[in-house]
Design a protein that fits this description.
Layout: H1 3-20, E1 25-34, H2 41-54, E2 59-70, E3 73-76, E4 82-83, E5 100-104, E6 108-116
Helix pairs in contact: 1-2
Bound molecules: zinc ion (ZN).
């Protein structure tokens, strides 16, 4: 489950940033996850729950993870039609060429996070 590693990276990034904001307890993390980003939302939620259990000092008791899915969209470079691809490299449904260029759906990023300073 590579989502454990992804979530670990996310938490490292957030913790580094949180130090500069004098936040030492996380309450909410929001992620944007593209449909074609290879990260499974359910696995991310599970990874979050595991990290939360392993690091009780880092998370508020009701800390939560919110995942915003980004829809996969592609545009054909030949006929300019827009469609919804099921893979990174996709066949244009109108001209049947492997000419789809992804417009969105690969994002994997921290949208925001919230926390507070625990005394
Ligand atoms: Zn096309």
């Amino acid at each position: 489950m590579h989502e454990m590693a992804l979530m670990g990276d996310i938490l490292n990034i957030i913790q580094e940033d949180a130090v500069t904001r004098q936040i030492n307890q996380l309450e909410k993390i929001e992620l944007t996850v593209g449909e074609l980003s290879n990260a499974m939302p359910d696995a991310l939620r599970m990874a979050f729950a595991i990290y939360k259990e392993q690091n009780p000092q880092l998370f508020a008791e009701d800390a939560a993870l919110f995942i915003h899915m980004e829809e996969a969209k592609a545009e054909c470079i030949f006929c300019n039609c827009h469609y919804k691809p099921t893979q990174r490299i996709s066949i244009c449904p109108s001209c049947n060429m492997p000419s789809g260029k992804l417009i969105s759906g690969e994002t994997f990023q921290v949208l925001s996070y919230e926390g507070s300073q625990k005394k």
